[in-house]
Amino acid sequence: MKTTAIASTIMMICAAASSPLHAQTLESWGASDYWDVMVDPSLGDGCLIQSEFNDGSIVRIGFDPTQGGAYVTAFNMAWGEIEEGGIYSVLFSLDGEDYDAEAQGIYLKDVPGADIFFDNPDFLFDLAVKQTMTLYTEDGEVMAIDLTGSYQALEAMIECQDEMG
Fold first, then answer.
1. Domain locations in the chain as residue ranges
2. For residues 71 and 69, what is the distance between their CA atoms, to the nearest angstrom?
3. Segment 139-158, tens digit of pLDDT
4. Which residues, in sequence order, are CB contacts of 82 under 8 Å at separation 6+?
5. Tens of pLDDT, residues 63-115
6. Domain 3-164, CATH 3.40.50.300 — does that match?
C-alpha cells in the first residue's frame, strides 16, 4: 500500500476524539512479523495491532470506528500505581519527535495500563515510519519500544479495517 493511501485511510478514520473501551476478548485476523492483527468487537469491529515487548509491556494500536478515531494502549504489570479512570499527562517521543497526550488509567485482567485516544493522523503515520516509541510521564520514562515491522503491521490493520467495513 502506498504512503498516501495509508495517510488517507488514517485521516478518514481519525475524524473525532473520544475514549475507547477495550474488550478483553479479541478476534485474531492475522499477523504481520512482530505484530498480531486483531479485531475488537466491542469497538464496532475496530482492527488493531498488538505486540508484547521484552519489558513486559503489551501495546495495542488500533482504530475505534464507533468514535471515528484511533488509540494506543499499553499494559504492564510493573505499573502498579495507576488509578482506574485517572487522567495522566504523557509525552510520546517517536525518534525524537514529541507528542503531548492524555492517558486514561485502565486495567485489563488486573494488569494496569494507559489508554491514549487521538485524532491526529500524523501521529499514527509517524508510528508507521519511526523506529522507537518512548512514553514519558512527569516522573520520567515509562517505556521504550522498538517499532520494527510497524509499517507493514499498520498496512495489515488498514486492510483488516477495510474488510470489517
1. 3-164
2. 7
3. 899 999 999 999 999 999 99
4. 88, 105, 106, 107, 112, 113, 114
5. 999 888 899 999 999 988 899 999 999 999 999 999 999 999 999 889 999 99
6. no
